[in-house]
Design goal:
CATH class of one domain: Alpha Beta
Low-confidence stretches: none
Mean pLDDT: 97
Number of helices: 15
Shape: globular
Order of helices and strands: HHEHEHEEEHEHEEHEHEHHHHEHHEEH
Strand content: 5-15%
CATH architecture of one domain: Alpha-Beta Complex
Strand order of the largest sheet: 6-8-7-12-13-11-9-10
Radius of gyration: 21 Å
Oligomer: single chain
Structural class: alpha+beta
Bound molecules: glutamine
Number of strands: 13
Length: 496
């Protein structure tokens, strides 16, 4: 039999319905692939093979009766930020050591209700804070891609992006058909760009945040990382939807996104914002961007120069808003209610000892910054000001939407970098999100689609930004880029 792990999610779905293989066979193929790859890549922090095979058995029974649900028998990976009922969920932090939730995140539940199979929990930056997956308490994830230098493969371990680095690496290495992910400032799109996968952050409110470990509640959104645009459309449809348990989740019908992908871009107005041509942008990234513009034009779109004047304030404002919300959200980890407890001489001492031992360096940095900007004397100067900047960023986009339907930018300023190359310099790391944070600040949908390889043979992505709740248009335009970029190569299985 051919290697089932190489199928796209859509191909696997059709193959199951046509009875070319069973859900159990498909699941077993992934379990085997994970066992071989995970010691090298560290994409999964927990595998749940018995759970997966039990779900696959149910799927096979339904398939036999002709009662297949939309994602029947399709094995996926679940980011460890999504609470899973009775299954360890840690957000890759020591402070949630051995935490077993008594509830399932709504997004996960939606997927299982649609018939999907869970292979295990995927690695991420601790509490989703990071851009390289190097802040995880379980250690970093290795990008399955390697770079070529001077005609030779360079064995430097590259980061898979973050915070959803386990999701991006697992999808790219064929260790699942698709994965859940979350994006607060770029954590779906940036890792997708660095691994040659497709990642969409939907509009704020499209997916329920209930049961997802909170980082910055006004920015966090769930979305899929998948192999193709079509696969990401299929997954998002079955992750999204109204949930009364999340008051920010919007009660709107979820369209059949898969029907959008083939609609093309004839007459679509594409905006190219001049402020995204940032200082120090590499010639390679700029060339990719120009290629994307040409592809969309060739497919019938019109191209328009636009201005988003407050772009340069997005990153500094994000690094006030996100830490502020994180310091408040993470106050609940006190050694009493969840996970780790380090007993002290009294209650305060217990809090302090638990948080000292349980949080990593980046998380502590954010809690300190967040507590500072929210403190009485500084609230107006920092937090309130950042919120005003946020309104201006949103207004920039509101103005742009009268002239264009979608905005095209690069996803990241550079392709995948090596372990440790940016980890010592928080500012260099924060700059990874320079093109993605505006989208979270404005609550808009954004997709990253693989568009080409760097001079060193590693993936690079283009980002499309859309109007609120107009994910459908993003899938249409992204499909045009995917078609034009040609079949994207898959990394060689050097770990096998
Ligand atoms: N890299 C950004 C940060 O560290 C965004 C992370 C995310 O989207 N979860 O905050």
């Amino acid at each position: 039999m051919t290697d089932l792990t190489k199928l796209t999610l859509a191909e696997a779905r059709d193959g199951l319905v046509a009875k070319k293989f069973s859900a159990t066979e498909l699941t077993q193929a992934f379990i085997k692939a994970i066992d071989a790859a995970n010691p090298h890549l560290n994409a999964y922090v927990l595998t749940t093979p018995e759970h997966a095979l039990a779900q696959a058995k149910t799927s096979d029974e339904r398939l036999a009766k002709g009662e297949a649900r939309p994602l029947e028998g399709l094995p996926i990976g679940n980011k460890d930020l999504f609470c899973t009922y009775g299954i360890r969920t840690t957000a890759c932090s020591r402070i949630l050591d051995d935490f077993k939730p008594r509830y399932e995140a709504t997004v996960g539940q939606n997927l299982w209700d649609a018939g999907a199979v869970m292979l295990g929990k995927l690695n991420n930056d601790e509490f989703a804070m990071g851009s390289s997956n190097e802040t995880s308490a379980f250690g970093p994830v290795v990008n399955p891609w390697r770079r070529t230098r001077g005609g030779k493969v360079d064995n430097t371990k590259l980061v898979p992006g973050g915070s959803s680095g386990g999701s991006s690496a697992a999808v790219s290495a064929n260790l699942c058909l698709g994965a859940t992910a979350t994006d607060t400032g770029g954590s779906i799109r940036q890792p997708a760009a660095l691994t040659g996968t497709v990642g969409i952050k939907p509009t704020y409110g499209r997916c329920s945040r209930w049961g997802i470990v909170a980082f910055a509640s006004s920015l966090d959104q769930a979305g899929p990382i998948a192999k193709t645009v079509r696969d990401s459309a299929i997954m998002l449809r079955h992750m999204a939807g109204y949930d009364p348990k999340d008051s920010t989740c919007v009660d709107m019908p979820v369209p059949n996104y898969e029907a959008e992908v083939a609609r093309g871009v004839k007459g679509l107005r594409v905006g190219v914002p001049k402020e995204y041509r940032v200082d120090g942008m590499s010639a390679e990234v700029d060339a990719l961007w120009q290629k994307g513009i040409a592809w969309l034009k060739d497919a019938g779109a019109t191209i328009h120069d636009i201005s988003l004047p407050h772009t340069k304030y997005a990153l500094p404002a994000y690094y006030i808003v996100a830490p502020a919300e994180c310091s408040s959200n993470l106050a609940r980890y006190d050694g009493v209610r969840y996970g780790l407890r380090v007993p002290g001489k009294d209650l305060i001492d217990t809090y302090e000892a638990t948080r000292e031992a349980g949080f990593g360096k980046e998380v502590k940095r954010r809690v300190l910054i967040g507590t500072y900007v929210l403190s009485a004397g500084y609230y107006d100067a920092y937090y309130l000001k950042a919120q005003k900047v946020r309104t201006l960023i949103k207004r920039d986009f509101d103005n742009a939407w009268s002239d264009v339907d979608v905005v095209l930018t690069p996803t990241t300023p550079s392709p995948a970098f090596g372990f440790g190359e940016k980890a010592g310099d928080p500012i260099a790391m924060y700059l990874e999100d320079i093109f993605t944070v505006t989208v979270n600040m404005a609550g808009l949908p954004g997709i990253s689609v693989p568009a080409g390889l760097s001079g060193e043979g590693t993936p690079m992505g283009l980002q499309l930004i859309g109007k609120p709740f107009d994910e459908g248009t993003l899938f249409r335009a992204a499909q045009v880029i995917e078609n034009a970029a040609g079949r994207f190569p898959v990394p060689e299985r050097w770990w096998a």
